[in-house]
Amino acid sequence: MAQGGVMTKLVVIGQGYVGLPMALRAAEVGLSVVGLDSKRPVVDALNAGHSHVDDISDEALRAGLAAGYVASDDPVCIAEADVVLVCVPTPLAAGGGPDLRAVEGAARTIGEHIRPGTLVILESTTYPGTTEEVFAPLVTRSGLRVGVDVHIAFSPERVDPGNKVYGIQNTPKVVGGLTPACTAAARDFYAQFIDTVVEAKGAKEAEMAKLIENTFRHVNIALVNEMLRFCHELDIDLWDAIDCAETKPFGFMAFRPGPGVGGHCIPIDPSYLSHRVKAQLGYAFRMVELAEEINNAAPLYVANHLWKALNERKIAVNGAKVLLLGVTYKANVSDLRESPADPLARRLLSWGAEVSYHDPFVPFWSVEDDGHTTALTSVEDVYEACRAADIVVLLQPHSQYDLGRMAGESRLILDTRGLVPPAESVSRL
Ligand SMILES: NC(=O)c1ccc[n+]([C@@H]2O[C@H](COP(=O)([O-])OP(=O)(O)OC[C@H]3O[C@@H](n4cnc5c(N)ncnc54)[C@H](O)[C@@H]3O)[C@@H](O)[C@H]2O)c1
Q1: Rg for the chain (alpha carbons), in Å?
Q2: CB crowding 62-96: b at 16 or more within 10 Å, else e
Q3: What is the pLDDT of residues 404-417, one digit of tens each?
Q4: What is the 188 CA–ligand 1 centroid distance (Å)?
Q5: Ligand 1, atom 18: nearest CA belongs to which residue?
Q6: Between 269-281 and 286-312, two packed helices, what is the crossing angle to 10 degrees?
Q7: What is the model's pTM?
Q8: 3-class DSSP state for residue 427?
Q9: How does pLDDT run across 106-143, given as a tens digit for each residue?
Q10: CA of 125 to the centre of ligand 1 (A)
Q11: Fewer Cβ in 10 A, N or C end of the chain?
């Protein structure tokens, strides 16, 4: 698309789950786009038309390449850019605090190449204050003035992997600049290819908006995960109760229990916020700490439930054949990051169980404990493996699973999702 008759030149730094779809969406509407990534194999694969991101098919990538998208690991393209987006990872450091090395690295690279007139937007999820205090000083270290020579803003990414309804175009985009002019520049940029752009008061509010969204999910998942424990003891079907509560047309949003939280966002982002509160104000964000404690314990609760279910049938976990179904962090994606299947498998292995798994998205899977790597056996025929297992654990209900058939073929199936139709063989979490 042309701005004032000139094609916008966009550089998107980080070509992962977030950056690649954004880059291709911009190319689709006619922007000239370079996807910059520091990993050479990622760049080569993208330019050869091979996508490593679930939601982007090779066909969609090739259409992007034909429309003018190109991947590169050479940051000189930043000097030509009108707009630079930063979509690099923001994991946790060893001590549990923010690891901003990728954000700082990208900001430094931009600072080396940027020319006046460029709009720079950070999209990586981070704590409020990062754009102003960490990111902008590195981008402008050659002496550029924010809001005058360059515009800098934050805009949280809202990608929901696997969501077929809401994508980049129809998910409203929040923008908050370091100055009103920065906000306006970011708004005008995204309005070229996103239906609704929402202006925050500033960058800190935009950063906080993302953390409110993820903390809300984290806390509500923890709420039902904790309720699950006493509902089980009280012989109450919590899933049924939630289905009933969900019929209230206002003031309620349903969250359902499960084996724990995973992915790049929910288990990590709220920690960025609690760390910020602790570091700057000296006190705890107790709600997040409690949610972390409960959700981190969820996989071990599954392990204990499995132990009890086998015990009732006079089977020891030690030596039992356990089949895990769906080991990714959510259904119908291939992302294994922070998957609750990992701590569950480690606990079961430590008890001497023979653990195998089935996952159509994961051909190879291993877990690490105390520096020791254990490769788990991936089974081919899921129904045959259900018949052979002492206990089957449904973790992620990938859409290709026929749950009724699985219940029929298994001697014992532990349903952590409340989705398997009731049968003699089914034990609900
Ligand atoms: N994955 C999601 O569902 C999701 C959703 C919303 C927000 N986010 C946020 O978006 C950000 C990016 O997450 P992601 O899932 O896309 O990460 P990712 O790991 O899939 O991709 C990041 C890419 O950035 C590259 N990279 C890292 N440092 C770089 C640098 N200095 N220069 C160039 N390339 C660099 C890596 O090689 C990698 O290919 C994170 O802050 C995350 O919290 C992710």
Answers
A1: 24
A2: eebbebebbbbeebebbeebbbbbbbbbbebeeee
A3: 999 999 999 999 99
A4: 24
A5: 16
A6: 140
A7: 0.92
A8: strand
A9: 999 999 999 999 999 999 999 999 999 999 999 999 99
A10: 9
A11: N
